[in-house]
Every structure is written in C-alpha cells, then in structure tokens.
Amino acid sequence: MLTSLIINARKSDQIHTNILESTDQGIYVVQLRNEEKDKWRLCYLNQNMRNMFGIGEQELEKGLKGLLKLVHPDDKKKWMDTYHQLFKNKKSIQRSYRLIQPVTGKMIYIDESIKLREKNDEIELYHYISDISTEKTLTALLQSTNEELKNLGQINKAIIENKSLHEIGKIFLDTIGPPFSIVSSRLYTLNQSNHELTTVCENFEKGIFSKIEKRIGVKAASIIPKLTESNYLFQLIQKRETIITTDEKEIIKIVDAHADSAIIKPFVKWAVKLTKLKTFAIIPLCAGNKIVGLVTLASTQKFSDQDIESIHRYTEHIAGGLIKKILEQDIKTAEKKLASNQQLLLTSEEMGKIGSWEVNFVDMEDWSKNTTLWSDESYRIFGYEPQSVEVSYPFFLEHVHPEDVHLVSGNFQALFIPGSQHEVEYRIILKNGDVKNIHGKFYIVFNEKNRPLKMVGMSQDITARKKMEKALEAHNHILKEEVERQTRELKIANQSLDAFNHSISHDIKTPLRAMDLYLDLLKENIPAQDDNHEYVVQIGNCANEMKLMISTLMELAKFEKIELKKETVNMRSMINGCIHSLIAETTNSKVTFNVLQTPDIRADENLVKHILANLISNAIKYSSKKEHPIIEIAGYSDGAFTTYYIKDNGAGFDPKLANKLYKPFSRLHNDSEFEGNGAGLSIAERIITRHGGTIWAETEKGKGATFYFKLPN
Question: For residues 323 and 297, what is the distance between their CA atoms, to the nearest angstrom?
C-alpha cells in the first residue's frame, strides 16, 4: 500500500516528500542505470534514515559507497549479495545486517525491505529500514537468561544430589566457561592456618596454553599460587570481595602474583599478551568472616556491566553450595583426624603405660562428691579392666601405698596456683598384692575468674624403670670398683714401664758404651786389609742401630706422657718457619712450596710443630729425586674439624702397605733409596690421636703422596 502511494505521489514532489517523511521507518531511494554500483545514485534519505544511520547531507553526496562503509565488516558481502539476488529475481527482498554509526561508533541491528521499480531505462530501489536493536538485545538477554537458569539448574541439581566438591566445581567451571570466553578457570580450597591453596578442579583452554607450557617447560595445571602476607593476590582476596578487572596492567600484576614462581615470572607479561586476556576475576568463597575457597577466571572477552552482574549471580549462587561442601569435607577430615588421634592416643598410652585422668570439681571440701574420669590405660595400671569399676578419689586413695598416701593427699589448696604444674612419685598396691611405682603429673584448669574447674593429669607406670635404675645402680657400683682396681693395676704397670724405660736409658747404655770402647781398640789393632776388620765395622754399625732404637723408644714414651697445653696456633706462621728450617738443613734447594689457605687451630703448639716438621721433612726427602719437586700445603674447616694436607710429587708408596706407615721401625723404602728409621710417622700419629684427631694418606707409587691429618675444633 505504501509503495502505491509513493508511485502515485511522484506527480507532486512536495506530496511525495511529505509521505516519505511521515512514516516511522527509515527510507532511502537508489536510482541506477545498470548493476555496477559506481553508476548507482543515492537520490533520497528521509530524516528517520539519517537519524538511524547517524549521517547528514554530506553522506548523501557520497552515494551508496558511503552507506556501504557504515555496514559492519562481517556483513558487507551479505549486504552486496542481496542486490545480485534482487536483480536476478526482480522481486522484493528482505535482509538484516549490523550497522556502525559513524559518530558514536555504536552498533545497531537493521531489518530492511527492498522493493524494485523499473521505469523506462532506469531502476529505482526503495529501501524501508527498521532499527531492531532493542528486539535483538531483548532476545539475546532472554537467551542468556535461559542459558544461565539452565546452568544454575545443573549446579543446583549437583548440590541437591550431594555430589562431591570436585563434581560440583567441575559443572560450575564447565558451564561458566563458554558464555564468557573463559580460557582458564580454577576452584581452590584455602587452608586457614597456613594460607595454602589446594586445587579442587580446573579448566584450561589447551590450545592457548600449549605455547606457554612449551616455552616455560611447566604444565599450566601445576602452577599453584603460594599466598603470603606480602603477596598481591593474598592482599586482594583478604578484602573478601569479588574482584573483576579489565585493565591490562592490573591483569599482569594479578597473574604475576598468581604465578609466584621464579620460572614463570619472567614470562607473565608475554603470556598475558599471547593469550589476549581481557578480564581477570578473583572470587573469594566466604563462610562468615573466613575465606574457605577461591575461584579464579581468565577471559579473552572484556566483560560488560551485564556480564559482571551475571558473573556475580553465578558466583553468589554457587558459593553457598560450595562452602557447604567445603565445610562438610573439612568436618569429615577433622573427624577422621580426631578418630585417628584418639586411636593413636590410646595406643600410645598402652605402649607407654601412661593413663590420663581428670577430676571435675563439684565440692572442694568433700572430694568424694567430685566426678572422676579415667582413660582405659589408667584402669589397666591399677589392675582393672577398662570401665569395670566406678572410680573416685577415695577409690584411688585405697590403692595408694600407706607410706605414700601423704604424697598424694592433704592440703591441695596450696597447689592451686594458676599456670603451675605438679609432679609426684608414689607406690600403689594392686588387689593381688603386687606393688607398682607410679609417676604422676597434673595441673588445675581455671575459669576466667580464676575459679578451679577441674584437675587434669597423667599416671605412668614406672615400675620397670625403677627396677632397671636399681639394677643399674648396683652395676655402676660394681663397675666403679672394677675401674678403681684396673686403675690401680694400670698405675703399677706404668710405674714398672717407667722403671723399665729408665733401665733401658741408663743400664743398657752402659754396656753399649763399653762395646764402643772395645770396638775402637780392635779397630786400632786389626789392620784395614785384615778380613776381620770388616766384622768389627759391622758390629759397630749394629751397636749404633741399637742406640738409635733405644733413643726412638724413649722419644715415643716421652710424647705419650707430655701434658697437652692447647692454645690458638698460627698455622701459616708455623708452616713457614718449618719450611725455612728444613730447607736450611737440606742440600735440595730446588723444592717449590705452594702454601694455600691454612686456618688456625687450637692445639698444643710444640706438638703440632713436631707433626708439621715430620710430614714436611718426609715430603722433601721423598721428592728429592724429582727434577722439579713441588710440595703443596693447605687446610680447610668443616665445622667440627679442621683438616690439613701436605702433598708432594715424589716417590709415593704401594697403597697396599699403608697399614705399616705408623708402626715404629717399619719402613716402606730401604736405606739405599732413602734414609730413616720409620719412627717419625709413629710419633706424629700418636700426637694427632692424643688431640682426638686422625691421620691418613693417599698415594700412587711413583706419583707422589698426600698426607692428611685433622684435629677437632
């Protein structure tokens, strides 16, 4: 009808214009000579059309191309295709598309009807348009609401059916994901004591996170934030409010705190850019003033106010059900732990023979009126099956040994001091006549006004311990007598040994001196060319060797008896002094010494000097045949001990013979190779042992040796 009115009204431009302007629809007319759009002419737009499209007179001059620029990019092809269909069928056509207003940038939905009119060699297209944005919005809102109600219904059903916390949370994360373009969502429970988060369930968009996982080498699901008071995430959730941010810097800051890992932190900004996160949400689940759980959501969609309201509805709706399940789970865990602890307590009491008890005060004057409770082990200690008799304070006193009643009765008022604990040992007599020793410990529980409420204590059967103490006391007495006897015998033996040493040093040396005198006379009376002269020389050598052995034994005995005088020893200074003295005494001046770190030690300075002189002297002697002898000396401390080593690049020795190193007169090389009597290492080993240390060697024949010794700090 409207088309016929317009056609008839063409006779009068004014009437025609009035009709076009009076309709509620937007109208524009296009004239064209062929289907090429550059030949099209936009000849008319009514005011409603201008208002709807948000364009003015200047757009009219741009023609159809100007209108095409306003069409949503995703709808332009469809917009143009309708014209090809119109020309092909020569019939009116209906189309819908989205339009971007040039000034406001607002997107509106357009429903448009196009009617074609042919006139001579021209074609006129009449476009009747309506703004259906409100209808679209309402339809979308209705669909969203229906979807939301459906999702909430699924969550409700899971809660009503008493599904597990994981199942309810999974339904929640699965249903909330698609409508809000969620790429990462997690449900945690929060431990109140240590702020530790435990993942209940999670949902990740695998495709998006695979690049991140490959880059950082860590699975996204394994990243669980650690909350501390300085942690930004912890500070946010302490507000107990749902936090939804669309600010990129804030998202990066939250994700950085959420990651809380040295591995992941450097990649946070890159990861946020890669996943194109637009929104991050933190939803605390609160029970009263305590946070029992947490939901985190990351979305590639920037939430509108409507989205945020919807998110609030979801979280508020699910929070109650989840909190109920979390608390139920906590209660079950606590019940299991309590049952386990109770069983552990019963087992511990039985194994340790410790019974617990309490007396609830009803009458402070007449204790028989107070109620008494015993644990199972308390009954067993007193010779009864648990709960087989009625217990009371008088019942307890009946079993206390008459000589010990005064220890557990009397004026208890003097003991009623808040915060104090009391211990007592006493004996009890069982109904079969056996006597047990008991160690008792108790304290008083007071109310806020310091009025005593009850007495709580424990009784431990220490009968076996008392028997062991008596047996140990008797054994110690016998041991003491044995030690005193052996000490006396050792003293006598030492005195005999001292007398023997004195005999060696004086009595045996006298005949040796006489032998030297007679050997000198024989040498004078027997010519050198006489065969017997060689025998005289050998006898002299044997006498000298015997004198050396006697001197060595005396020296060993001397070091055994010297009293240790410990003081701080400057090891570097002592090592340098030993090196200087030993180099002056030897003809081998080619030795290179490398003295590294040598920490000081508390020890007997003179004896430590003897150790160093012996070990450094050996290192010089056994490396003397090397072209470039090198000796390295160093030390290090490990807390309890300080260890030193002297390393050379000399002859070394066979490691299989190492057990002979510290035996007097035991040598690993013969005199033709290196001189010595083998006593030096024996003396060094005894000095080190007397200090509480040890000595050992590492070697390879022909490649040098390293001697270590360590002394306690």
Answer: 18
3-state secondary structure of 483: helix
Can you list the positions of beta strands (E) in 288-411? 290-299, 354-360, 371-374
Q: Say how far apart CA 184 and CA 202 lie, in whole Å.
A: 8
Among candidates 125, 45, 39, 54, which has minimal Cα distance to 85? 125
Rounded CA-CA distance 419/464 in Å is 31
Tell me 563's DSSP state.
P
Rounded CA-CA distance 328/324 in Å is 6
Buried b (16+ CB within 10 A) or exposed e, 362-388: eeeeebeebebebbebbbbbbebeeee
Return d(Cα 12, Cα 18) in angstroms, integer: 10
How many CB atoms are located within 10 Å of the residue 200 CB?
24
pLDDT of residue 645: 93
Q: How confident is the model at residue 634 (pLDDT cuts 50, 70, 90)?
A: very high
Token representation of residue 534: 């060689």
pLDDT at 373 over 60: yes
| DSSP state at residue 247 | -
- SS3 of 144-162: the string is HHHHHHHHHHHHHHHHHCC
Residue 359, Cβ neighbours under 10 Å: how many? 20
Q: Which residue has the higher pLDDT, 172 or 75?
A: 75
Sheet holding 371-374, edge to edge: 371-374, 354-360, 452-461, 435-446, 421-429
Q: Quote the distance between the C-alpha of residue 286 and its chain's center.
A: 28
Is this structure's pTM higher than 0.70? Answer: no
pLDDT of residue 632: 92
Rounded CA gap, 220 and 209, in Å?
A: 7
